[in-house]
């Protein structure tokens, strides 16, 4: 029998640092009175569906939250609101942050979500498909995005079909429907999650899509012919291009890196490290425009540069979400000269939806002690 006083988080991971940031936000959530939480982490899962099935078997929790390692829960009362929705709507089996009213026959939905909202890393830094008439209501959808999937009933994930990392979420949405449950997206006055994801991987997408299309013909006559063709040759070319970019950074030739990334901007979409490097170049451009001499990333090799940039992104987002517990990292950045006001501005322009809030916080806290280095 399931335990209605327990909430289980289930997370498949292959990135220790991303998981740490995810758990940082989980640990800041306000837990409803009388409830307890468990966090089940799955490493080395062979697929998302198999990992989730294993995780489900580890706990007797009634309520489960299946989420990506790069999803951060920024609304501290999300658990209270989710439980309230479930208790008041016993026909709802699963809730998500963004969804789609009807899956198109071509069943490619990654860029067609039309309900809900979530903060993201690409302009305008938020997906927001909420309307005034949906205020404070649930919206019934056919499928939800796998970045966040909360359930109050256990339905096995179709690991017999989906053996990779795509379509497990769309499949589970339709499995809920098959079992007679609703799938819905709650109204969010502000985004409840930040999805720290730069790009999606496509190598296995078409194969999983075809499996989905065949299995769910009872739902709709989904297109079974080829729709998406993965360009392995282009991916290999980009991989070699990235190696050359890394070599240039290690040789301290960031000026040439900036030129190349700008020249080939349209081709970078499938390589997350190249997108981050493009953002790093943008930060450096902001610094130059504001007259800073020592630029962001000077003296670092490619690995150090990307690691530092991720940490700086996390700091900017923690400021935006009022989640700074220890200002030591900020003091270190300003005190060492790694950050100036221009640096912080460039980072905020890349990742902060509310850049004014971030800059106001930094100006108020560090304006005096960083008077000589704040640009």
Structure description:
A seven-stranded mixed sheet has the order 2-1-3-11-5-12-9, with helices on both faces. The protein has a four-stranded antiparallel sheet with strand order 8-7-6-10. Strands 4-13 form a two-stranded antiparallel ribbon. The chain has helices spanning 16-26, 48-56, 78-88, 168-178, 205-215, 232-250, 254-263, 272-289, 302-320, 328-336, 341-351, 355-366; strands at 3-13, 36-43, 61-67, 71-73, 92-96, 98-100, 115-119, 126-128, 138-141, 143-144, 148-151, 182-186, 193-195. It has twelve helices and 13 strands. A hairpin with a 6-residue loop joins strand 7 (115-119) and strand 8. The chain has 375 residues and is an alpha+beta fold. Helix 7 crosses helix 8 (272-289), helix 9 (302-320) crosses helix 11 and helix 11 (341-351) packs antiparallel against helix 12 (355-366). The protein folds into two domains: 3-215, Alpha-Beta Complex (Spore Coat Polysaccharide Biosynthesis Protein SpsA, Chain A), CATH 3.90.550.10; 232-366, no CATH class.
Features:
375 residues, alpha+beta, Spore Coat Polysaccharide Biosynthesis Protein SpsA, Chain A, 2 domains, 4-stranded antiparallel beta sheet, 40% helix, globular, disordered C terminus
Q: How many angstroms separate the termini? A: 61 Å
- Which strands sit side by side, in order, in the main sheet? 2-1-3-11-5-12-9
Name of the level-1 CATH class of the largest domain: Alpha Beta
* Structural shape: globular
Secondary structure tally: strands: 13
* Uncertain parts: 368-375
- The CATH superfamily of the largest domain appears as Spore Coat Polysaccharide Biosynthesis Protein SpsA, Chain A
């Amino acid at each position: 029998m399931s335990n209605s006083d327990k909430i289980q988080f289930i997370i498949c991971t292959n990135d220790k640092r991303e998981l740490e940031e995810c758990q940082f936000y989980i640990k800041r959530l306000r837990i409803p009175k009388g409830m307890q939480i468990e966090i089940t982490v799955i490493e080395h899962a062979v697929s998302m569906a198999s990992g989730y099935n294993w995780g489900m078997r580890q706990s007797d929790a009634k309520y489960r939250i299946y989420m990506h390692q790069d999803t951060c829960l920024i609304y501290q009362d999300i658990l209270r609101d989710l439980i309230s929705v479930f208790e008041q709507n016993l026909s709802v089996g699963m809730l998500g942050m963004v969804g789609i009213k009807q899956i198109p026959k071509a069943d490619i939905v990654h860029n067609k979500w039309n309900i809900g909202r979530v903060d993201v890393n690409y302009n305008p830094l938020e997906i927001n498909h909420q309307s005034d008439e949906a205020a404070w209501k649930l919206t019934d959808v056919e499928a939800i995005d796998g970045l966040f999937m909360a359930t109050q009933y256990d339905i096995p994930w179709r690991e017999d079909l989906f053996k990779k990392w795509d379509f497990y979420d769309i499949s589970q949405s339709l499995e809920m429907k098959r079992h007679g449950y609703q799938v819905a997206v709650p109204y969010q006055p502000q985004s409840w999650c930040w999805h720290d994801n730069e790009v999606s991987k496509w190598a296995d997408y078409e194969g999983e899509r075809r499996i989905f299309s065949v299995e769910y013909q009872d739902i709709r006559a989904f297109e079974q012919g080829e729709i998406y063709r993965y360009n392995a040759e282009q991916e290999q070319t980009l991989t070699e291009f990235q190696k050359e970019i890394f070599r240039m950074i290690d040789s301290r030739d960031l000026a040439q890196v900036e030129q190349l990334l700008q020249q080939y901007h349209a081709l970078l979409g499938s390589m997350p490290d190249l997108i981050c490097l493009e953002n790093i170049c943008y930060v450096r451009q902001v610094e130059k425009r504001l007259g800073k001499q020592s630029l962001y990333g000077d003296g670092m090799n490619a690995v150090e540069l990307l690691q530092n940039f991720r940490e700086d992104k996390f700091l900017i987002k923690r400021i935006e979400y009022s989640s700074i517990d220890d200002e030591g990292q900020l003091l270190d950045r300003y005190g060492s000269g790694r950050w100036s006001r221009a640096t912080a501005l460039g980072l905020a322009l890349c990742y902060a939806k509310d850049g004014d809030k971030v800059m106001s916080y930094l100006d108020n806290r560090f304006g005096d002690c960083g008077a000589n280095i704040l640009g």
